[in-house]
Structure formats: C-alpha cells, structure tokens
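Appendix B, Record 12. Input sequence as logged:
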Amino acid sequence: MTSDKTPSRLRCVGWSIVLTLAVPVELGIGLVLLLGAALLPFGIGLWVTGRAYGWLRAAADLHRLWAAQVMGTPIPRPYRQLPAHGQLARLRGYTTDPATWRDLRWLLTELTIGMMLAALPAASVFLGLLCFAVMISKISESPSPPGYYLDAHSTNHALWLGLVLAIILAALLLLVTKPAMRGYTWLQRWFLAPAEATRLATRIAELTRSRADVVDTQSAEIRRIERDLHDGAQARLVSLGMSLGMAEKLFADDPATARELLVEAKQATGFALSELRQLVRGIHPPILADRGLEGAVQALALSSAVPIERSGELPGRPPAPVESAMYFALTEVLTNMAKHSGANAAWIRLAYDAGRLCVMVGDNGRGGATMPIGGGLAGLERRLAGFDGSVSVASPIGGPTIVTMELPCELAYASS
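Logged structural output:
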C-alpha cells in the first residue's frame, strides 16, 4: 500500500543529491556485471558475477528501504532463497530467480529515466543558483565606454530581465520536486516489487507452510492432551476405582482398612480434579474467557517471578482464537525470559492499530536472544503464522531484549 508521505521540498532536494551521487555506484555495478559475463568462460567470471549480483540486490534493498522510510511506500523483497554453499549453485540461484531479471531492468531504468527524475530537484536549485550568480556577475561588470550609454542601459535591463526569468524558472522547477520524487518512487515500486504472479505464488507457499505448521501444532497439542489424560487423571481414576473395589470387599470384615481406602480414594479424587483443572486451563484458561486478554496479561504479570510492568489498553476484544493464540505465545515468551534472560525487570505493552493486535515484551536481561531453527521462538513464529501473524526479536548483546508479536484481527467493541 502506498501512502503520500512525500517529504518537504528542502528534503526532496537533499535526497535528490544523495540519489544522484549513488548513480555512479550503480553504474559501477552494471559495468562489473558486464565484466563478469565477459569473464565467465575463464572461470573467474563466476566469482565476479556472483559478487555483482549480490551488490545489485544490496542496492535494490537500499532503494526499497528509502521508499518505505522516506516516501511511505513499502516494497516487499521478491527474492528466492539462495543455496548456502557453492559458487556455481548460488550463481544458478541468481540467474533462475525472476526477481534478478527485474533488478537488471531496474538498473537500466535507474541509469536513464530514474537518474533524470532523481536529479531534477537538485538540478532545479543548482540552475537557479547558477543563473543568479551569472546575472549578478554580469550586472556588476563595469559600464560601457562613454558614448554607449543607451546600449549599456539596454544591456542592464536585459540582464535584470534574464535574472527575473531565471528565478521564475527555478521556482517552477522547484514546484515539480515533489511530483518528481513521487514519480521516482513509483518507478522503484514498478521494477523492485514482486510481480503479481510471484507475489501470489509466494503467498500460496506461505499459506501452505503455515497451514502445515498449524496442523502439526494441533496434532502435537492433541497428543499432549492424550498423554496428560493417560498419565495423570486417567491413572488416578483407575487407582480410585481399584481402591473403592477393595474397600467394598473389606467393608464387612475389616472396616478400619476399608475406611483408610476410602480416605485414599477421596484424596485421589481431589488430585484427579486438580489435574483436570490444570489440563482444561492449558486448553483455554478460564481467566481468558472471563476477563479477556487484558485481564489474562495482568494475571501473568502478577504471577511472574520477574517484576513486570504492564501498559496499554485495547479498545475492544479480539476473537477467542486470536486471544488464545496470543496468550499462549506470551506465556512462552515470559517462560523463556524467566529461564534464560537473567532479567530483574520487564514490561508488556498492548496495542491495536491498523487492524493488528500487537503485544511487545521487553526485559533488561543479558540479551543475545535469537530465533534458531527448531527453537522456542521459531516455533512461536510458526504458530502465529497460522493466523497470518508475525514475531520479531531485537536482542543485542547486553540487552535489552524486545519481542514483538502481531496478529491481524478485528475487535469486538462493547456497546455503550
């Protein structure tokens, strides 16, 4: 989605200078690509071309970042995953990726039309200053020799008229700085964004992967519930039945022993009920159903071994599946924080904006948290991906650690 976030004309001129200075670098990348293609028969071309493709993607990513941060036009990265090893395999990955050929077309356009659009704001200011300096220098020259008063007078008038026209021309060019920047941004998005077919294919792959993750997670959860029932409440109920059967047989001959068995059976009943309550709480916590996500987050903060400050309010209540997913994700993050962070203070922020529920968790621990494949945070990301959600981790060495979880949803607003 594109938002009109065009900066002021002065900033447009500044960015125009930066983008114009980047053109020689992009030209150099293009020349290295041509050199690598020419050297391919000699072997070294593999290394040169692979490096040049990497530089080309880096340049394209910088333009995507500029478009998102400065112009408010996010441009998704369309690239496929490259092989981890092998220069030839990586080069094949580059050349078989359709996004690479879009990048090459972008580079050609960037060095022609894009360069002219990017340089227009800076050129307008430069032209105005140049014309002003020339006219001032001409006006300040010595007057014509005696006898040529009328010619000198006419020349001065012409110079002043030229100065006014130069200022008007520079002002008109400044008026088109914002449209030029918007046109340049549109050009970047046209070439650097993924093609519609690629975008749909990527989206289908993401949905297929997230659906498989959801199925796997649900299967694992069902197995966990079966295991907890078999090893916990079911075993206690079986023991309870045996104790009641033995008490029934001994009731007439040995009432004291029968009474002891009944006491044990009563205790087993209490343990079984407690385990069933814990199991039900693990499926859907009662506090989540009664008080919603805000109340459940408050309860987690109060029960945490690390002091947690909670802030933020939700204008409504998310759907029950979204509440449950976010609650258990938050529970896992807090558990990892208590085990591994070494923090003595933490905070939780709740927010809802632009149709997305956001929960941020931060702590003052040692930092260095990552999302390795197969780790807890990676599993958390797969679980939220089933709801089209996302997880991001910022955790420099030495802290702090900030985990941001987002889920798209619509809130149910309470009627007043």
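The two ends are 34 Å apart (CA to CA).
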